Amino acid sequence: MKTNTTSLGNLSLHSISKVFEQGSNKVRAVDNVSLDIQGGEFITFLGPSGCGKTTTLRLIAGFELPSSGNLILDDKDIADSPPNQRPMAMVFQSYALFPHLNVFENVAYGLHLKKMSGDEIREAVEMVLHMMNLTGLGKRSPSQLSGGQQQRVALARAMVMKPKVLLFDEPLSNLDAKLRIQMRVEIRRLQQRLGITSIYVTHDQVEAMSLSDRIVVMNKGRIEQVGTPVEIFLRPASLFVADFIGRANFIEVTVLERKEDVCRVKAFADDYWVPCSPLVQMGKQAYLMIRPEMMNLQPEANSSAQIRTTIYLGSSVEYEVDYNGDNLMVVDTHPHFETILEEGSPVAVSFDPIASYVLPYEERQIPA
Amino acid sequence: MVSGSINRRLNEFRRIGADWTLVSGLLLVVVFLGVGIVYPLFKMLGVSFTAEALSYYVRYFSSPVYLGILWNTVKLGLTVGLLGTVLGFLFAYVQVRVDVPFKRFMHLMALMPIISPPFAVATSAIVLFGRGGLITYKLLGFRYNIYGFTGLTAVLTLSLFTVAYMNLQGMLRALDPSLDEAATNLGASKWDVFRTVTIPMLIPGIASSFLLLFVEAIADLANPLVLGGDFTVLASRVYIAISGEYDIFAGSVLSVILLVPSLTVFIVQRYWVSRKSVISVTGKPSGKPTLITNPFIRWGLFGLAMFFSLLILLIYGTVLVGAFTELFGINYALTLRHFQFVLFGLGSQAMLDTSKMSLIATPIAGVLGMLIAWLVVRKNFSGRGLIDFISMLGIALPGTVLGIGYLLAFNRPLKIDNTILLPALAGGNAIAGGTIALILAYVVRSVPAGVRAGVASLQQIDPSIEEASISLGADSATTFRKITLPLIRPAFLTGLVYSFARSMTSLSAVIFLSTPYAKIMTAQILNEVDAGRFGNAFAYCDILILLVLLVIGFLYLVVGTTTGVERDFGVSL
Amino acid sequence: MIRRIWLLVTCFTLVAVLAACAAPVPPTAAPNTEGQPAEAATQAPAADPGRLTVLCTPQEDWCVALTQAFQAETGIQTNYVRLSSGESVARLRAGKDNPEFDVWFGGPMDGYEVAKTEGLIEPYVSPNAAAVKDTLKDKDGYWTGVYVGAFGFCSNKEVLSSLGLDVPDSWDDLLDPKLKGQIAMAHPATSGTAFTALWTIATLQGGDIDKAFEYYKKLNNNILQYTKTGSAPGPMAGRGEIAIALIFSHDCVKFQKEGMTSLVTSFPAEGTGYEIGGVGIVKGTQNLEASKKWIDWVLTGKVQEIAATVNSFQLPTVPDAAVPPEAVKLDTLNLVDYDFIASAAAKKGITERFDAEIAPAPKE
Fold this sequence. Notes:
The structure holds three protein chains of three kinds.
Chain A: E1 11-22, E2 25-37, E3 42-46, H1 53-61, E4 68-73, E5 76-77, E6 88-91, H2 103-113, H3 118-131, H4 147-159, E7 165-169, H5 177-194, E8 197-202, H6 205-211, E9 214-219, E10 222-227, H7 229-234, H8 239-244, E11 249-259, E12 262-267, E13 270-275, E14 285-290, E15 295-299, E16 306-312, E17 317-323, E18 326-332, E19 347-351, E20 357-360
Chain B: H1 2-18, H2 20-48, H3 51-62, H4 64-97, H5 103-115, H6 120-129, H7 134-139, H8 149-160, H9 162-174, H10 177-185, H11 190-219, H12 222-227, H13 234-244, H14 248-273, H15 295-323, E1 325-327, E2 331-334, H16 337-344, H17 348-378, H18 384-396, H19 399-410, E3 414-416, E4 419-422, H20 435-460, H21 463-471, H22 476-487, H23 489-505, H24 521-530, H25 534-559, H26 565-568
Chain C: H1 2-22, H2 38-42, E1 51-56, H3 60-74, E2 77-82, H4 85-94, E3 103-105, H5 109-117, E4 121-122, E5 144-156, H6 157-162, E6 183-186, H7 192-204, H8 209-220, E7 223-227, H9 233-238, E8 244-248, H10 249-257, E9 263-266, E10 274-282, H11 288-298, H12 301-304, H13 306-309, E11 315-316, H14 340-358
Parallel strand pairs in C: 1-2, 1-3, 6-7, 6-8
Antiparallel strand pairs in C: 3-10, 4-10, 5-8, 5-9, 5-10, 5-11
Helix pairs in contact in C: 4-5, 5-14, 7-8, 8-14
């Protein structure tokens, strides 16, 4: 299955920190980050801007030097080796195609530096251009290509190097929505085919979900959580993760009872057994996280909850519900003529406890 | 925390050490700046603060005559700064915002002073507007005294306003027309827009033009020597002190006195005014600016700009015709003897020496300029700001100050315990006849323009393009050569063009350094002008302008098309 | 594109290398020949006649004519730099340890006296110097006179008549308020001509420097500009920019000859100064033999006659040189008793005082 001839590409970050000094100001852009990445794995760093994800990527690439910590690639510490000597290739947000070279020369650039023969280079470049659906565009200059094509050239240029690790720095953020989805699929397909360890940085959670084997959620220079997309979405480790990945309602609750991984809490006037975080303790305050898609509304004349706004989006309807003064967000993903509720109508609220989660209480500092 | 910081520094050094290009590039730049600027400057400062020199300060600051000279210098700087900025603004505004014919012609006339030697305007002005001048006396019949403050101010303004023109023209073009549209939309008249939008947006540009002109005006040596009359300024005093008496104490002390206002104004311009800029000059305009249509304003501005354009044409026309004239002003018979003197006579040595030294200095300055720009913009190391600042001193220091520094630093070998660290570089008996000090001076004076152009150009280029190259396995040197240099080609060309023009036309920094084996064309022109042999002076000027144009043409041909370059051309700081 | 840049750089490097090769190579630093027997230099192979760098003070075209003729005649590669007298002394002072010049030619004797006192020139008594009168050379042989010229007023008669003035024939005529801004002279720091004028005035005041300065101060009110070179005011008068130039009379005649026909020469009745243009060997020269040859050569009649061919009508100092008809007749003039030994001693003081009190002072 794997066509790359290079070896594993296991990458470990050990307590990596990066401090930037601006005058007397010190900013800890990356704070004690440790992570093991398996060969062939697709890892995404996800987080809001300024969370340190790009800096971490640049530390791995070697464009920045860690203030402390080690970087181990296949049992070798590469923290000090210059970026051009690391077996990695990077795909940039701005594509970073060489404007003065044509497509072929762009892709061949790294191979020339490897002192490969002209024939070998031609063969390798043709192959990768073919793979990327760029056949016949070799003579074009980058400015004559569409955004999607430019992105594919950038990808081809990195791929042709057969690196042990491919690095992606928000590569799709300059594309329009449709192309983005198309390229997402293409990247995932290629990565799986070639089995190259890939590290991808994005702030787009959908992108992260659709591409990654595992997602690393970062905030303020630290790792909040590492996990598969499902774990991240359904079992977030913190309020931050829960809120950053998808949307969520948070309801302050008291844990009434705990049995292994589930807790009993009282919400919307009923008791529910809900999966809960290991950190949640009986009798303590906690947050019940409910995804808007996991909530149900039923018209009920006497209910004190009522619909504040109704937004029809075609494939779904979004409701804002006033529940005793609190705002709840509810999404109905199967709207019909009959089921769409009008603004002002009273409703009864319920939810799917299996798809929800109880998080330990913490000071709320959730980005709006 | 301290150990962390030390650790970080160590890391930085380790990293720099691993990148041999960075090491050698940095080393080259540091040695160049150290030898070319820092050492001579300190040598000069050293002399100016010896016990013997201190008495000069007392003498100068207690003498009303010298306080007068100081005031003259400042007054000249302020006036030329003001008038030059106004003139530059007029040309820029007409160029960008007024719909009139002959814009191209006016643009060329405004650029003319860059490529011309320092005496062209002054000499022409004497024969045209002096007491016996063709226009003032022969045509209008009055004897106008051009020598002194007014004549000097007029000539300096015409010689220097190009800096303001280029600066303001760039800013006016970058001014987003939608701002005008927004203001008009809110009910502002054209005059309101000019007053409340255009001018406030341009204030940093206006201020910085004014300050740059101030620095150039007080540092100018050529014009005060030829046209000063009884109006004495510091630069010409420095010249008399060195050339007439070889009094290095007086020279150094006067230099320090001249250095203080120059450097202060330069620092204010560079680190304060330019930071206040609200326009990014590089930004693409998002529409076509509305042009002035009111016929009175339109043709009024046209008339003014045309008047000055024609004046410049007349002045340079005189430089051209005067070279073919037996004795301009008295005997208009055609002759080729001035050209004979410059091209084939003993006057040709100055022309050849200067051209050769400029040709050697040009590529060195060009590459160094790009290298410094690249280090400053792209590389992260301690002392980056310092390197940027010192490289800019090459132009911020008045030429005479640099010249004295060179004289003191390089006339004798630099020895420690009888070991020669650096042989004598200046003077007739130095190695290579003193040409090395001259070439070094040319390079030092030219590098800043290249650095500025390079920095501006690099800041527009996405750094990830270079990172992509490194990520693909190229080292810094390969990346600089294969990616960076081709991308900043227009800036490189600007650097080359500017440094050749600058070298060929510079006087104040090199006048003390000329030797029997390395004669300088501008110094020779000064002799010709001073001795009243205007024909020879004009011929030198013509040849010099022609040489500069030829080399510029050659550079365009080899390095690239005129796209973009023409815009960059003349960006001085 | 990359290739084009490299092509360019290569081109430049080529040009630079060629230029560097073609650049004249100065003599390689040899041990100082001071005190070395003269014979040592004569043993140099005849194939290489050596080289000579002349510090030349008179009019530039004279320098050109002389150096070209000398090179043609002797095969010695001869180069010159023209500097005014004051500048020349300054330049010799700057290069005292390591002189870049071999001989100094021309300029008033005051400068030579200063150079002699400061140890900037060394003695050489040319066999040809015997023909030069004792009053026209240094008794110790440091310098020998090569020409004589008288100081005078060089006026533009048209400008004078438009001012309603006659051609001046007295120093007092120069103080007429009508002449405000109509007179030019050189700066005594750079120019020997200007110093000759100052010392002449001082002599006429009986050597009282303070009284002389009173005169300078009054004269300063009428001065338009102090030029760098002594003769420079001449063309200013010739072009009608000023009425009177204070220069050597032979320079005035030269400008007349060269087309500035409005010029007229006159002399002050109270007495005028004169110069003995000197020649001397720069101390520590690397080319002693060539330098001696130069001095022998300029003390011959035919060489001194070259001056007139480039319109320099100074009086020659060797008897077998023909006196040009344009030259000044010294016996018709009232010459002051110009004590150049005293003047040289006073030169620094007067120049500095002038530079501080007079030249930069505002006009009244």
